[in-house]
Amino acid sequence: MFQALLNEIKNHKTIIIHRHKNPDGDAMGSQIGLKNILKDNFPEKTVYVVGDSAGHYSFMDDSVMDEIPDGCYADALAIVLDTSAKHLISDERYLTAKRTARMDHHIFVEKICDTEVVDTSYESCCGLVTEFALTCGLKLSPLSAKSLYTGMATDSGRFRYDSTTAHTFRLAAALMEQKFDLNDVYRQLYADDFSRIHLRARFILKIKFTDCNVAYIYTTREEFEELNVDSFTVSRGMVGTMADIRGVDIWVNFTETAQGVLCELRSSKYNINPIAVKYGGGGHAKASGATVASKEIAMAMLSDLDALTKESL
């Protein structure tokens, strides 16, 4: 399934790699990993990475984005990673590229690029990029392997989620053939400033439950602005505070921002993706997200999640 993508890469001297906004570890890992795979195997090509700041994942090596003029896209191949829908892509200039390609592991929402490699059987986009490199006989470096391993570990919940398969571990083992500091990966992933630990404690005290035991947190715009942290930290960063509550199979974190109410949906048991899609979002069966216009719509989503649990009961 990779031959068309490999041909596109070979046919372009300039390659510009995009991913989704507010990147997580998988978005950053796949972007940095692919960049260095291409640089190591095709040294004659110019490879850029673009998008918004790495944010929480700025600890990753080579995570600073390139600033490039619009003219770079004229004869370039733009590759979009880890993104299911057009509106989620960071830097819309990919549309001006000569050719476009996508690699993604999310549930399919829409066609985005000329060439598409979408496979939901992978726990992460990093896993898909690793498969691409191994299948095409492309060499890996310690930097590309470390980046891909980091993204694989984060998107699989440190290899806990049920998207993790035997093949996941085979790919991880292939990455570990390269010499990188595994302790450094996990030290960075688990380390937190005391201020963030304190923030997590505050969010734990905000947890509420529906009649059918769906756990949720709702943060108003005023509360969010008082925290003086970015939206990623509050929305995706705090949804995990509800992940290990006994008897809770669905949990959701709502965060009011200037752009709307950010909704992070998670489940250990049910497919919550159709509900995310209903409200204009997407993602995976058990980890999805959406942005809605108001608290009323967010509460309607919560009611749908409650109903999903009630039907099963």
What brief labels describe this structure?
313 residues; alpha/beta; single chain; 5-stranded parallel sheet; 37% helix; 11 helices; 6-stranded mixed sheet; globular
Question: How is this structure best described in words?
Answer:
The protein is of the alpha/beta class. The protein has helices at 3-10, 25-41, 125-135, 142-155, 166-175, 182-190, 194-204, 221-227, 231-234, 273-278, 295-312; strands at 14-19, 46-49, 77-81, 99-104, 115-118, 208-209, 215-219, 250-257, 260-267, 282-283, 287-292. Strand 10 and strand 11 (287-292) form a beta hairpin. Helix 2 (25-41) packs parallel to helix 3. The model has no long low-confidence stretch (mean pLDDT 96).
